[in-house]
Amino acid sequence: MAEQPTALERFVQGILPENPVYRQLIGLCPILAITNSMQAAVTMAVAVTFVLVCANAVISLIRPLLKPHLRIVIFTLTIATFVTIADRVLAAYLYQMSKTLGPYIPLIIVNCLIICRCEVCASKQPVFTAVSDAVGQSIGYGLALASIACVREVLGTGMFFGMRVMPAAWPDWSVMVLPPGGFIVFGLLLGTANWISNRR
Amino acid sequence: MVYFIDILLIALSAALINNFIFYYFVGACPFIGVSRNVDMAFGMGCAVTFVMSIAVFLSWTITTFILVPGAPVSTFIAGFFLSAEQAATIDLTILSYIIYIFVIASSVQFVEMYMRKFLPLLYKSFGVFLPLITTNCAIMFACLIILSKVSGVENPADAWDLGRALTLAFFGGVGFTIAIVIMAGIREELELCDIPKPFQGAAITLVVGGILALAFMGFTGVNTGLKKALTFTPVAEAEMNDSGSH
Questions:
Q1: Tens of pLDDT, residues A53-86
Q2: In this predicted structure, what is the pLDDT of residue B170?
Q3: How far apart are CA B173 and CA B180, in angstroms?
Q4: Is the Cβ pair A182, B25 closer than 8 Å?
Q5: Are A22 and A113 in contact (CB under 8 A)?
């Protein structure tokens, strides 16, 4: 290890150069499952941000106490606690959205993105670095969710954030909001992202 | 009879109609990452099915006897501190996520230890995959379905029993195996194709997965049709028998 990236570098890296979705291909379940509308995608991004920032901060604070063989258990239990909080808050204030997202909010617990950030960054770095890394990664994750969701929602229902953007004659391409659309749109966007970064 | 039809429909819907990967997208990470050759994919599928059955068995037991309001164990313990009516309303389902992840992590650990000791051959064949399974969303997802079927129902008689829960877990795992093996077979062939460079690897896998998901959409509605076909004759016969005996 030559030199550790600083807090700012980690923040910037999370957004595009090491985007968790397009570059590292982790945390894919919600990427495919809830990107059929922008509202769901944004809610999910906010929930992931909350959990990731809190979990990274806590893990970073208790890092001197972590035992190597028990660390994964501690990570998952910490994450599970914050996911429970996020889930309850969502059920209290955005009941309809919490119904729509259903089991995908609790599935944040097993989202590899968060465990990966805890393992790679938070368990080795001080709090400020860990939090800035978490914020950068969550912004990257949110952008990826939004990019897929806006393609799927506009093509599938002709709407954007629930507002009509396509002309009335637009035939709703409903396969886009169904499961196969998630795979195909994400595959094509991923290929495009690779193509653009290779050309540079 | 009704019970068997129910079991059959749960099995069919978990394995094919609402396939874990193609309908719910859970377990997509190993689907992209591991499905490179058929043998490995089959090993992964078996390991997931096995651990899913164990984890669902444990989480069904814990949910039914401890977590839901009025569950025997929590009522008994709370009975020492509270009055009987208060004790029966204790609702611990808020702890369910923490408990499930703990159950999954520990059952993976136990399965690993048991297999290393008693089934070394099997352990060698799926050794690599076992630790990975802890963070496989499919298993957590199966536990969450069980939670919603046990505690989310309005009428206590509708809550799923152990047989239904285990059927869902086992055939959910079978569906996962089917999906991942089909994908691995296709990917082995894809190695020989001339794919544009940016699409090599994950991107083409996702597009192929999308086409497979389209194919699996063909199963939509099979369960309602089958249910009609199965329940029609027996119910009519049962009514006739009933009226005959009276």
A1: 999 999 999 888 888 777 888 888 899 999 999 9
A2: 93
A3: 11
A4: yes
A5: no
